[in-house]
Amino acid sequence: MIFNPPSILNFQGLELGLDCKAENVFISHAHFDHITKKSRKTLASKETIELMKVRGVETQKIEKELKAELLNAGHVLGSRQLRVEGDGQVFTYTGDFKLSDSITGKAEVRQTDYLLIEATYGKPEYVFPERNEVYDNITKWVKRNQELNIITILGGYELGKAQELIHLMNKEGITPLVGGEIAKISEVYNHYGFNLKFIDINSEEAQEELKTSFVSILSPFKIKKELPQIKSNKKIDYTTPSGWSKKFILSDHADFNELIEYVEASEAKKVFCTHGFSKELASELKKKGFNAVAVDDLKVKTELRELMVSV
Ligand SMILES: [Zn+2]
Ligand SMILES: [Zn+2]
Hints:
The protein is α/β, with parallel strands linked by helices. Helices cover about 30% and strands about 20% of the residues. It has two domains: about 180 residues, 4-Layer Sandwich (Metallo-beta-lactamase, Chain A); about 110 residues, Metallo-hydrolase/oxidoreductase (Rossmann fold), CATH 3.40.50.10710. Strands 5-6-7-8-14-15 form a six-stranded mixed sheet, sandwiched between helices. The two termini are about 30 Å apart. The relative contact order is 0.16. The site of one zinc ion has 5 residues, from loops.
């Protein structure tokens, strides 16, 4: 994933960094490419603040009372968009978002004049299948493995994807074994009313399960580290559902069509694309008649900065 350098929003007499290093920051959600290790004065949802704490990042309050709306982004628990109004103009920053519905809902789209939109899948080739169809395919694959006495390992990012997969498995009556960090984050989900059932793979309780053809959800980056020695000679089947997957395309992000749909519904008169295929998305939007630019050079960043001074 390409992360474009920071954007600063000047508004209500305050410089606010958008998911970037600044004294005062808006944090759209608690993924590591949007938070920094340092404790900062933070505007974020209470869920994000709690998730950041669990991930080892303390936050402080912004002293000034800000008039800003945080809209659901539907990306992961606590993910929000920032919408601010001033001088009769509206500016919206989407952060990471999606429009397809899942356990954390979908992004709310409101009218805006200026839009800073993520572009992770900003190329026309990224069109995802229906979410429910993908859920069905994953479930069928897991059940088939169980029938064949095969161990199933689903790779899933520790915040968001893992909980979506736990929920999917729970619907089938399966309680998956999960990595330690996934267990901690899932507890936060449960604190906010989710009823996720899982077993920490490092716990005593997991020992019996590990002898069966169990289902496990682990971070794709920690499988070697977290998967204990399997003492049986059972086969293991592994896949990581994601937007980049060839097998199960399941993403927490908008696909190309959703990005376009968002821009159209927002009626934005100027669109700034960031975070991913920003150039490609901007050029596709231009073809459709939108005033769109990629936030990838200093000129555009300066323009964005100056534009926002008036808000
Ligand atoms: Zn994210
Ligand atoms: Zn991101």
